[in-house]
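Appendix B, record 7
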Amino acid sequence: MIFKIKTISSVLFFATFGLISVLCASDLGVPLPKDAVKILEKTSNFGPVKSFTEVYKTSLNKAKVISFYKKEMARSGWKQKEEGIFIKDKFIAVVVCRSSKDKQGQVEFTVTISNIPSKEEFLLMRKEKPDKLSYMPIYPGSVQLSIVNLPAGIAGAYETENSIEDVVFFYKTGMLNYGWTFDNEKFVQSKDEPVDCPSCRKLPGFLNVANKPKITSKTRKITLIFRRKKSETCVITVTEVSSQQGKTAKTKITDSPRKTTILTSYHAYKSNRP
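Structure tokens (predicted):
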């Protein structure tokens, strides 16, 4: 038996075309395990991002909670992007579950729902000089795309033209100065993929199919995981996208500059047990 989130007294507020819309999280069809008991709820606003978080207890272990949401969120129209992260319309839902059970044999998990800002709203959050953070260093010379204060922690996005190797080396060494311990990393490298280039159509010789410039894009991605004390985690995902462009019989195309994106997710878990 599946229960929807019904007992929500707070609401999500978000701006759309200058109007303020009000929406209850229950309208989004977020499921709950049958025995889930809510022990806390809170809201958080940061710029255009409005979030609502509920904390629950359940007898299910972490693996079963994750499996439950993977299955039931899909039934409710949510699309899973990553483990515990779901998208529906203009909203994102994040489910975080503790690994261990308490003395009563129950596990705490949180459900955080946030609106997804528009492209224009994200551009307003862009800063050439990033905000300083107390819990981690900022990559030198990077541009801050966004910084969002969520109930479960803080998420940031940055951009640089430096290589993924330089960025990873910086964080592996710099995080140590903030008391973090390196825990794990995951590396993913995509194959070269053809890229459509509308602007290339204006180049001499492009109309000749045999001389069409060959443009490929390569993506490399590394996720770094750091831990501090028993309750803090920081996940840094660095993604580098570079283009390699060929040449025609008449024209050689210069390479496009690389773009390296840095996504940070800081989480300081605080127990909500009485």
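Remarks on this record: The CA atoms of residues 155 and 265 lie 5 Å apart. The first helix runs from residue 62 to 75.
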